[in-house]
Amino acid sequence: MALRPFCCALLRRRSTLSAATALGSVAACLAISQPKTALAQFRPQPMHVNFQQRTSPDDPATFQADKVDYNDIEHTVTWTGNVQVWQGDRVLRADKIVYDRDTGLMAAHGNVATIQPDGSVIYAHYAELTGGMKDGIMLHVNSTMQDNAKLAANGMRRTGGKINDLSRVVYTACEICEKDKTRPPFWQFRAFNATQDLEHQKIDFRDTYLDVLGVPIIYLPYFSMTDPSAKRRSGFLMPGLTPHDRYLGAYITIPYYWVINQQSDMNVQALFATKTGPQLSGLYRNRLNFGQLSIRAGIAYDTHRAKMYTNNFGNEEESGGNHGLQGHVFINGDFSINKYWRAGANINYTSSANYMRDYRVQGYGADALSSNAYLEGFGTGSYARLDGQYYEGLNQGIIHNKDLPLVLPRYTYSFTGQPDMLGGRLSVNTTDFNVKRDNGVSDQRGELQLNWNRPFHTRMGQQFLLTLRLDSMVYRARKLYQQPAYYNTSRTSVTGQVLPTIALKTNWPFVRTFERGRGTQLIEPIVQGIYAPNTGNNGSDMIPNEDSMSYEFTDSTLFSLNRYQGTDRLDGGLRGNVGVHANWTWDGHIVDLLAGESFQQHITHDMIPYSGLDHHASDVVARARVIPSQYFDFTARMRLDPHKTKINFGDALFSAGVPHFRIRGGYIYEPVTPYYYFATNYRAYSPNQLYTTQTSELSGGVSVDWRNWHASGFSRRSLSRKNFVSLGGDIGYDNDCFAVDFMYLKQYTTIGGQQRNSTYLITISLKTLGAFGLK
Fold this sequence. Notes:
3% helix; 46 strands; 29-stranded antiparallel sheet; 775 residues; lipopolysaccharide transport protein A fold; elongated; mainly beta; disordered N terminus; 4 helices
């Protein structure tokens, strides 16, 4: 093995040079016929490529070969046997290389490979290179690129290290069959010629065919794509085509991606439809050192006009104006001020809900758009947040903007201290706000909640938790006769509430092992006693209600001090909660059970409809989770009225299957909808049937996959209303370089007087090229 660095001064005199002279004092470079003289100290070194620097013809080059022959008559140097030549950030390997010292030309024969600055590798049978390997020709070229992309050509001409002109080109990102390399890949582009622009990171094909399994299916006179080595590059993306839509008709989308700089970019899309005017939309993103900012916006000329319709309450409504110039702006930003404070905003606005429906703007189908701006801080055991909230109704006729609140400001603070000398922890919480409605209660609240917890245990293993809590709120409210309070008063009210609570909870876990220590069994009785003054539901005190519209008495709130969602309504009176928790775990099998009941001293019938607390002994709540094996799991919850032997709440989820196949299902039951307490004056009259109809829904799904195929289906049906809520399915195929997916979705929800029908979406993805969708 001969390892020799060399430099070439392209000496004009025809004198014989000894090998010792050439190795010891001659500086060489690979490029021009009359280069500048370059002198360097050479030493044997391993192969190294620096991808950060640019190669110059004057850079010293290093070679490694099994044998070196010098021909002083023809002024050539011939290297044979495992030849490697590298100069700057370019490397050349071959079985044999002949270097002409007069012209600076290198001729490489046999198993030629060149490593490019971007890391890609070009293979060839024969190559002639000059100019620091930046210029030359190659025959029978194969190139391995990023993301396993491959390019082959009969010949290639390189110019300036920036342009590669190729003839008879084939490009693919699919794997080549190892057993039969002549077998065509799953897909490939065949072109008469192509130009690879390394500087602008793109490849232009001319007279191109797209072959699938060796069969040509599409002809393209011209096709341009981003070079796989490019992480981001400005240019047009795959267009989208939809042959039919209820509001747009047939339409096409043309997206363009713009790389602004290293930290920001923009995606702009033009939409042209047959049934309405065009739309221009865009997404701007900026990733900053101290946060991020994204702006999604659009503008369109909508030719549709809103129509009157009868809503589910029997009222004539207008679905919302959308004729003429329309638009939307969605802004999201989060910014770190320092390590303790950060600020942000999520601003969403649209000119009309029907515009979002017509142009398929993201977010359509929700009841409302919500916006907020905030400032929040973090400390040791503490958290503070100051924000404002604004809502814009989308489902006009059901939710009107005048019914929605403006919350400005809203302040939240939470603090948890370190253990004190008695072994307890003190926590302080407050949520204060100002709420304004055009139609409905407008109120202000100030709150202070103090909580002290002291855990301890006995030698027998009993665990105790002593809790002392004080809730205090002050309110000022007007329009209490409107939703959601519906009080019989028209005056402005200033009132408040104070509720001290003491609670003691004990757990006594009994644990044993079985199956030779591989399994554990737990039986844990739980008892809790709570005392607080009985305050009823605070309705007689004219206290508004913003955060406690429903009473959640389930297994998850059995031992909660307050089982309302918030603090405008508080659980008072003397009550006791009992429960039993059992768990068996062994060899991956799990059985977990919980059952309990609450007993309260004070009862006010119909105070909280459908709460499960109509008697001194409450409904029984229970939960079961069973995982007998990795092929099945089941979770169910319920609330049972023991007096009427009636289930007042229940839900269940299960999943079962084997590898490559799985089914899932679920069921939920509630006596009324969640909107019942908010939109209904249930004290004065019977609410609308829309809210009193039981929530009884069944859902299910199945998924299967086998090798490169996958399929799934799902459905959701309301048993109480005897109709479907949604159903759909998906089937597709994917391999290492290609994917096709067909999706079907049907939604039955009626919004703005219009009900959506079926949606079909076909997506074809070619690796390194992108995805094309037909909807």
